[in-house]
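queue> holo job accepted (zinc ion)
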Amino acid sequence: MFYRILSLLLLLPSLSFATELPTASAVPGGIAIIPLAAEQAGKPHVRYIKRKVMVIKNDDQSWSAVIGLPLSIKPGTHHLSVQWPNKKTKQRIAFEVKPYEYESQYLTIKNKRKVNPYKNDMQRIKKERRRSGKAKFQWSAQTPQFNFIRPVSGPESSQFGLRRFFNKQPRRPHGGLDIAAAEGTPIYAPADGKVVEAGNFFFNGNCVFLEHGQGLISFYAHMNKIKVKVGDTVKQGEQIGEVGQTGRVTGPHLHWSVGLNGTWINPKLFLAADDQTANAAPKH
Ligand SMILES: [Zn+2]
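queue> job finished
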């Protein structure tokens, strides 16, 4: 595993953005940072697969598009569409996505209903999918903080991107990082943000969605208690809840996801480089 993370880090094209931008890693479930021409006037609007993409102004006044790459993306050439305010036609920019092989994980869930829900659970699940789908696409204009802190102290029990089997049945890959901790352990906001969704969901248990700016979303699941409500603004390091084991779990832990342009990506790309390979490095 360590070797895999190391090889992921070696894909970094440059460390010069390290303090201002997340870590670039153009693999499925990673982030592509695409420099846009500097000479153009004004902030461009950028889209990737028709979705609005984060655009950040660099110190030298040039722009960078920061794109979340879905776990399902095919390695190879992909395209961004860039609309400059002073141009009539859109610019098309190609970028490369490299392959990355995620490991498989087999989990046994005692509560079989959480693997094969009853017919009457499906209505609730569909409703919650709509709510989380909407939350994943929340967008505010401000530039987010990228120097995230770990939301919980504790060992990482499941890495992002694992291909998952519950009771031997294939399910969606793991869209977050699991951090094991005792029930009641405080969960902190990793960066300033706003609570855009919160509730008790069938699979995710008690959960919270934060929006940090330009569609950067973070998500916390299986909580014992939620300590914030929709509409609250939170500061980095402010408590948002407690670790629990609600929803589909094998034990108490925090499931932590980070999303960009509506897609879950590796949360570790928002931690400081020396914290990305650490298995348990509480910062608070
Ligand atoms: Zn998880």
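queue> The radius of gyration is 19 Å.
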